[in-house]
Amino acid sequence: MFSVGAFLEEAKDVPYGVGGTPLMLSLAHVIRAYGERLIVYKDSTRMVEQPLRSYDDLVKIVSDPAAKTVFVVRDISQAQITLIDLVAKAGDAPPLKHGETRSLNSAFETLKRWWSGLPAVAKVISLYEIDRQARLNGLKSLMDGLTGSVDRFDFMLGQLPAVYSGGPVGDTLTEKDAKTICDAFAEDVTLLNSGEQIAQGQVAQAICDIYGAKGDMIECEKVVSKWYANLNPSQRDPHKCDHEDAKQFLVHMADQSVSFSTKIVKLLSKDYGFGAVAEWTSLHIKDYAAKLKQAKSEIDKAKPVVYKPAVDEGVHEVHESEAMWIGVPKNAASLIYTLDGSDPRHSDNAKKSDTKLDLVSLLKDRPNVKIKMRAVDQDGNTSDVVSVELVSKERKYEIQVESDIFGEKEAIFKCPDDTEGLVAVFKSIISYGVKRKLLSKDWAQKIETLLSDLNKDK
Fold first, then answer.
1. Closest CA relative to residue 397, chosen from 361, 373, 442, 428
2. What pLDDT sits at residue 20?
3. What is the b/e burial string over 101-115, where b = at least 16 CB atoms within 10 angstroms of the residue's CB?
4. What is the band of 5 on the pLDDT scale with cuts at 50, 70, 90?
5. If you average pLDDT over every residue of the chain, what do you get?
């Protein structure tokens, strides 16, 4: 410890009689020489620091006839220099120039910037696994204290290492100790840097649970978007919704200008009174998910009733001379249907009928047809799907020729369970052979004669 007041009094007195300018220069050289190792206190009790940030601060000391200021020089060991550098690197400090040594002050400022730049939710320790929470709590308590006056030396070389060593290390710190401490600190920095992403993942999983799914924000978007797409137009209209949370949900789902993640972790969470997830100072995941679940329930309940077409589902064998009429159900405006087995609500091949429909007419000389139907009201709301397969009694054993995904021809037919059916299949194959010029008409006639004799002899 060096008493500045005593030095100034002695320098001013005879035989020296030094004036203000040399005294200012001598003190300035001391400050410059020791740099951050020099701590200036207001008096010898060393209770209160006296920062020297400007020329005027130095003038006040030199001109004070009863200055009690003291200088204290603290040494930094090589192990502590290593600690300072590794701590700064963990906080993403810029690389040093060749031959440059990391200063304690710059490392301290790096830590302050890192901590202040973390989103609030990343500092909610209950977000992390329980076995990591004790040490993270210690680090958080320490870093939260940076808002006031802090002894930087004590913070960097005493308090911070103590969080990871279980107690003060002081001058006994070794290079190995410094690396061990900094490795643990770097792990915590990495974990805290990912805090916002962890919070978003937990929010996504809580929402997935509502839809009976598991996963991250990508999976969450899939299940929520699928649910939203399956709503009818009336359900998707926020103006027809009286429930405020449900209305906000629908408004944001309809907005295509922002990402799904932004809707969930920022916009909708704000509308529900929790604020953006990144700004949370405590976790609201359960409460947020509960509001979303209620909103979903209200939207689902708003589904208007559209009665499905009245017909017995399943397979029906019919004569082509018969008729099977299906009417438009009450409160519906039309029927939509497909003949390829796809859902008419989402198919580009869907056909529409505003009046009653004869299903048998859809056979059109085919052995069978698979029909899927829905009733539709004036707002575009649809009934449940109805599936019917019609099989022609006259043509059910005829082969149907279709192309597979590679363009190859495939023949499909009902398997016969009697001789008559078997003969019908053979005749259908013969007819196909004639059409493709694989058989001559004479040969076809001869084979059909044999088949007719087979049918007589059965």
1. 428
2. 86
3. ebbbeebbebbbebb
4. confident
5. 88
Structure tokens given for 412: 């499909």
Q: Helices 175-193 and 130-144, interaxial angle, to 10°?
A: 100
Q: Which two tokens stand for residue 16?
A: 């020296």
**Three-state secondary-structure class, residue 17:** coil
Domain 314-396: CATH architecture, name and number where available: Sandwich (2.60)
What would the 3-class secondary structure string for the chain be? CEEHHHHHHHHHCCCCCCCHHHHHHHHHHHHHHHHHHEEEECCCCCCCECCCCCHHHHHHHHHCCCCCCEEEECCCCHHHHHHHHHHHHHCCCCCCCCCCCCCHHHHHHHHHHHHHHCCHHHHCHHHCCHHHHHHHHHHHHHHHHHHCCCCHHHHHHHHHHHHHHCCCCHHHCCHHHHHHHHHHHHHHHHHHHCHHHHHHHHHHHHHHHHCCCCCCHHHHHHHHHHHHHCCCHHHHCHHHCCCHHHHHHHHHHHCCCCCHHHHHHHHHHHHCCCCCHHHCCCCCHHHHHHHHHHHHHHHHHCCCCCCCCCCCCEEEEECCCCCCEECCCCCCCEEEEECECCCCCCCCCCEEECCCEECHHHCCCCCEEEEEEEEECCCCCECCCEEEEEEECCCCCCCEEEECCCCCEEEECCCCCCHHHHHHHHHHHHHHHHHCCCCCHHHHHHHHHHHHHHHHHC
Q: Which of 185, 55, 41 is nearest to 115 (CA)?
A: 185
CA distance 97 to 195: 32
Burial bucket for residue 43 (CB in 10 Å: 0-12, 13-18, 19+): middle
Residue 284 has a pLDDT of 97
Tokens of 20: 């203000």
Write down the domain spans for the chain. Answer: 2-73, 78-193, 197-301, 314-396, 409-457
Read off the pLDDT of residues 36-49 as tens digits, 9 standing for 90 and up.
Answer: 778 888 998 888 88
Strand partners, 388: 314, 371
Tokens standing for 388? 């019917």
For residue 26, pLDDT beyond 70: yes
Residue (of 26, 163, 178) closest to 102 by Cα position: 178
Sequence-ordered strand ranges (E) for 160-265 = none
